[in-house]
């Protein structure tokens, strides 16, 4: 019989930001349980693989969490680049906006998993055009893109707003996600919704 090798995608560290304390804690856990595989994912999270299912609860506890993520289907992750504070190309503070987005929208129930990317400049290191909600910084504010998808049937998202402040882009993202929640089919991603929905219908909703 094949040996099960389950894995967990850990919701921390948020937006890929690490501290010395977290790295030391992580290293101790890896050594304690002799974990054979640890990987940073494309979503700036951690995948731990190859552990015995019997240690699952202990593993979560030693990583500083009571259990795995317990939340309704909604924002799957918020990805953010270093932004203006840490990158010479940055024009806006992507990490700060990512934290604000998580507080404002992180618990919002949605029809399917929803991926958010925040890039501090138009180089779009977080691939905002192929995220359900993509936000990238320009010299005069944020640009919001909605309905992108990078899966097997990719879709370039639509630009919904430009020159937005932090407050304005969060409000507009919330409106787009509300439209998504009200019009999508169960488990339908934003890209599929917008493929079958005229853009004008979304814009009328946002007025």
Describe this structure in a few short sentences.
This protein folds into two domains: 7-62, no CATH class; 75-206, 2-Layer Sandwich (Sulfite Reductase Hemoprotein, domain 1).
In words, what does this structure look like?
The protein is an alpha/beta fold. Helix content is 32%, strand content 21%. It is globular and about 55 Å long. It folds into two domains: 7-62, no CATH class; 75-206, Sulfite Reductase Hemoprotein, domain 1, CATH 3.30.413.10. The protein is built from six helices and eight strands; from the N terminus they run E-H-E-E-H-E-H-E-E-E-E-H-H-H. The chain has helices spanning 20-33, 56-62, 94-105, 166-183, 190-196, 199-206; strands spanning 7-10, 37-40, 46-49, 75-80, 114-119, 133-138, 141-146, 158-164. The chain has a five-stranded mixed sheet, with helices on one face.
Q: Kindly report the oligomeric state of this protein.
A: single chain
Low-confidence stretches: none
Task: Trace the largest sheet across and list its strands.
Answer: 4-5-6-7-8
Structural class of the secondary elements? alpha/beta
CATH architecture of the largest domain: 2-Layer Sandwich
**Major beta sheet, specifics?**
5 strands, mixed
Percent of residues in beta strands? 15-25%
Amino- and carboxy-terminal Cα gap: 59 Å
Helix content estimate: 25-40%
